[in-house]
Amino acid sequence: MRDGNTTVGSEPDDPATGSSNVVTERSDPASVHVIVGATRARIVLSGEIDADLGPDLLDATADAEATGLPVEIDAHHVTFMDSSGVAFLARLATRGPHRVRVLRAPPTVRFLLEVTRIGDMLDIVDEDPGFDLPDGVTHLNGSRRLPRSDR
Fold it and tell me: pTM of the entire structure?
């Protein structure tokens, strides 16, 4: 499991030269986007969904719930999820009047939903059913991106 601070390399530092052969891995940048359509709100997650993203997940939850529309989560580009992401999905599943759909969940997310049994409270959908834009809107110039607090 990678935490974004992991270092890799098999050679120790060279005390004679002070050089290091250790390479630091960069974590996948995480993002949360909320898109409001004509009939539902979509939260698009990407990258590493972890505790660092917690405040952004809370904001996304509030924004999506404020629409009063059914909520769906596009998880296609999630590369890692810890208990913060699972808690986010559980919160959405238990608070709203509509059943939450998770679209295109990768195997790691499916595994977490299965072992935690949170998946029983969600609809897991393999295909993206498309997104209906509000009347008068022909395309999206962008969605609301919730910035990470550490940027």
Answer: 0.73
